[in-house]
Every structure is written in structure tokens, then in C-alpha cells.
Amino acid sequence: MGQKQLFLKACAREPVERTPVWLMRQAGRYLPEYLKVRQQAGSFLNLCKTPALATEVTLQPIRRFGLDVAIMFSDILVVPEAMGMKLDFLEGEGPVFAEPLRESRDLNRLIRPKVEKKLGYVYNAIEEMRAALPSKVPLIGFAGSPWTLATYMIEGGTTKKFTHIKTALYRDPDFLHMLLGALADTVIDYLNGQIDHGAQAIQIFDTWGGILGPKNYRAFSLDYMTKIVRNLKKTGPDGERVPVILFSKGCASYSKDIATSGCDVISLDWTADAKKIRRQLGDKVAFQGNLDPAVLYAPEEVIRKEVRKTLKSFGNKPGHIFNLGHGMEPDMNPDNVQLLVEIIREESSHLLKRNSKKR
Ligand code: 1CP
After folding, report:
1. What is the CA(262)–ligand 1 centre distance, in A?
2. How far is CA 34 from the centre of its chain?
3. What pLDDT, on a 0 to 100 scale, did the predictor assign at position 1?
4. 152 flagged as catalytic
5. Distance from chain centroid for Cα 299
């Protein structure tokens, strides 16, 4: 084993010489080289299910920008598919479950999958990715939170209104809890498999946690994520600790509760006041985030100003991983990503050098 990678040091709240950086949805449609492979694959799901192609698109942003971390190319919705739901990705429309779940008896359609069998293509991809990545670039595995997966399984696809899942929440919470429990069990199996096959960190995407009020957020999202965190293997096959990152979009004000889950890192979206949250939580956990992705539409001087602001807001204690507050969008310019990464490198090394002199 060589030197511990910058990202894993930051997750463990150890001092680093510069702030490590990766970007949510760093592989994807804003990259022309991704579109090429995507076309070659024929469909998005085929791309996810062909390890050689998934490996290629995982590596693309690493090669182009020299990012400090890779995230395996896949999607959160392969889990409901493995549980028996028919999944399509329609051009311009996103994911569609043609037969969504609406009441308790629909749960009979779900199975608890043998993950090695049903999701073995993800594990094969992880192994191929690890073999292809430079040793200084660790690989993140991931899953959706039970709550976020349930929104797609009950709504049948992307929604702005969340009518069906909110109806279930207030009319039939037992149905929802049964579904969330089943999802948590499968996600635990699935993520432990990712760790066995070489994922060096895990991120749980709770994209829709923020549509819940505080009490419901705990009962319907955080409790299930906590169960997952507590049941994950703490170390990988190489004996290294596998940190867990929780990203509940729109939930920064619950950070104190989120930290009690046992996660190593809290990922913040751009609405979060990082300075305040760091002050509240001390160094209980590390943080990831939280530049507004829309800054990538701005000119260089604005990008620099916003990067400085973000770095400063996380303060000078160890334990910050630079990221966006949410994912890259297809219309973003890769040249601005290059610029962003260079600016983060420069500004964070200056800042960390200054701080170490002060101490
Ligand atoms: O046509 C295409 O090429 C599909 C676009 C696409 C891509 C590139 C989808 C469909 N998924 C992905 C990859 C993906 N999805 C990754 C790996 C890429 C990387 O990060 O580099 C990851 C981590 C995800 C996770 C994911 N999928 C989330 C959680 C993260 C987030 O962005 O909030 C969610 C909610 C999904 C569902 C999903 N997959 C794809 C779409 C269009 C959607 C719906 C999003 C929505 O409802 O708004």
C-alpha cells in the first residue's frame, strides 16, 4: 500500500497539503467523450451494465481534469430494478417505472435480490475500475437512500410534486415503512458487496430528503440511512477504513442529527452555511461541498471569488473535500470545470500554507 490518498486523509480529518476535489455527476452528458461512449452503448442502462464501457466513462473526468477521486459509473435506480421493477430511461424524460408501487399489496412484486447475482455487473465494473485507476485516485461506490429510491418507485419517475409518496406518507405510513425497510436491507447487502469488490468509500445519495419536514426526515429518511451506516463493513479487503458520506439535499439544518448516524462525512448543498455548521459540529465529522453548480456558468474571476469563499467558509480545521452542492448539468462547459479544478488547487494550497504558518 502506498501513501494514503488525499481524499481518504480528508475523510479521516487528517491534515492535507491541498483540499481534494471531485464533482458530483463528474461523468456524464457535459463531456463529448461521454456522449460518444453512450452512443456506442446504445442505451444508458446498457452503458451501466457493460463493465468495460462503465470503466471508460468513470475514467474520462479523471484523465481530463486530474480529479482526486473517481465515482463508479452507475445509477441509484439499478437497485429497484434488481428488486424486480421494470426500469426504462426515456430520451429527454429520464427514468420511468411503468408499474409504480402504490399500496401494501404491490410490495408482493418485490424480491430481496441476491446482490452478487443481480448486481454482479456493478461488482465486475468496480474491479475493472480499480485496476484501471492510478493508485492515488480512490474509487467511491454509492447507493440511493431508501427514501430517495422510494420516491422513484412510488411516483414512477421524476416528479416536482411528489403527490403519490406524500399521499402514502400521510395515508398509509405502514406501507411506506415496509418498503423503506426492504430497501435498507437490500442497500446494505449491495454496498457491502461494493466494499468487498474494491469500493474505497461509499456515498449515500438522499436527493429528496429535503422535501420532508424535520420529524418526517428523521423517521422516513435518516433512520434508514443510520441503519445502513451501522451495518456497513468498516474496512475493505486491504484493511483500510471505508468512509461513508451522507448527502441529504436540502437538509443542512439537520446536520447535528445526521452526524449521529455514524457517517464519516456530511455532504452539504450550496444553501448550507458551512461556517455555522462547522462551528456547531466541531470536528465530529468531515464535510464535503458545497459550491453552487451554477457558478460554472460564470466567468473566471467569479469562479475564483466563489471558490475562495467556499474554502474559507469551511475554516482551517482538517476535514474538507471540495465538491459542488449538487451535480453537473449537461449544458456545462468542460473548460470551466478545468478552470475550477485548477483554481481549487491553487487557492487551497495557498490557504493551507498560510494557516500552517499561523499555527
Ligand atoms: O442519458 C444519459 O446519459 C443519462 C444521464 C444519467 C447519468 C449520467 C443518469 C440518468 N444517471 C447518470 C449517472 C449517475 N447517476 C451517477 C454516476 C455519474 C457520476 O457521478 O459521475 C450517479 C452517482 C447517479 C446518481 C443518481 N441517479 C441520483 C442521485 C444523485 C443526484 O444527482 O441527485 C439520482 C436522483 C438519479 C436518478 C436519475 N438517473 C438519471 C436521471 C435523469 C435521473 C433523474 C434525476 C431527477 O429525477 O431529477
Report:
1. 26
2. 19
3. 47
4. yes
5. 27
pTM higher than 0.70, yes or no?
Answer: yes
**SS3 category, 322:** strand
Under-50 pLDDT residues of the chain: 1
C-alpha cell at 306: 466563489
Determine the atom of ligand 1 nearest the C-alpha atom of 26.
21
Which tens digit of pLDDT belongs to each residue from 124-179?
Answer: 999 999 999 999 999 999 999 999 999 999 999 999 999 999 999 999 999 999 99
Q: Based on the residue annotation, tell me whether 308 is a catalytic residue of this protein.
A: no
Residues of the domain holding 81: 6-358
Give, rounded to a whole angstrom, the gap between the first and last alpha carbons of the chain.
Answer: 31
1 occurs within a structural domain? no
Q: How many CB atoms lie within 10 A of CB 322?
A: 26
What is the chain's percent helix, strand, coil content, to nearest 5? Answer: 50, 15, 35
Q: Are 324 and 359 in contact (CB under 8 A)?
A: no
230 is an active site residue:
no
Residue 29's SS3 state is coil
CATH number at residue 73: 3.20.20.210
The DSSP call for residue 66 is: -
Q: Domains in the chain: how many in total?
A: 1
pLDDT at 316: 87
Among 29, 39, 76, the mutation site with the greatest number of ligand 1 atoms within 8 A of its Cβ is: 76
pLDDT of residue 2: 62
Q: At what angle do helices 173-196 and 163-171 cross, to 10 degrees?
A: 120
The set of cell numbers assigned to 348 is 487551497
Q: Atom 41 of ligand 1 has which residue's CA nearest to it?
A: 94
Cα maximum dimension of the chain: 64
* Residues with a CB atom less than 6 Å from ligand 1: 24-29, 38, 44, 71, 73, 75-77, 89, 94-95, 142, 158, 205, 207, 327
